[in-house]
Amino acid sequence: MATGQTDPQRRERIITATLDLIADDGVAGVSHRKIATRAGVPLGSMTYHFSGIEELLREAFTGFAQHVEVVFALHLGGADTTDQAREAVTDLIHTLSEGPRRDLVLAQELYTLAARHVEYRSLTQAWMRRSRQLLEQHFDADTARQLDALIEGMTLHRALDDAPHDRALTCLAVARLTAAA
């Protein structure tokens, strides 16, 4: 394997391997050795690129949060009318709930960390603020806050239910919540 200087993708591979390992085994299953093995890098690369496992976890989850923000922006950015924004929210819920199981697991792992550790709480708070800002391009602040919670809840329910609700129910929920908008 090439050295860190001639392997510019090493740091990113370590971050990706960290997220993949968390998705498979949870945060509790993460170790420098397991990440290095999964990333295909020497164990010494871990401390060369990151001061410790906490820095690596924060950076990995920061990147994951940014990824989800991009998904939100892609869905909501094309809406010009309130009806289009409602449709975009519905699409977003179905995209997130039907998307990679990895993303769902990572979101839940991040929420669990945020419930226990303030530094992750600030990361999730920033993520929620950005989600609401994107929603506020189409809805008032209170409605955006409620929609953000609806998106999270319906995504989780659809993803974990053995008989997930259909698109019509999602449309109805979004329409009811945004009726005054």
Automatic annotation (TrEMBL):
Protein name in UniProt: TetR family transcriptional regulator
SUPFAM superfamilies noted in UniProt: Homeodomain-like (SSF46689)
UniProt keyword Transcription, yes or no: yes
InterPro entries: Homeodomain-like_sf, HTH_TetR, TetR_C_31
Organism: Streptomyces finlayi
DNA-binding region location: 31-50
Keywords, sorted A to Z: DNA-binding, Transcription, Transcription regulation
A Pfam family hit: TetR_N
Single GO term (MF): DNA binding
Domain HTH tetR-type: 8-68
Signal peptide range in chain numbering: none
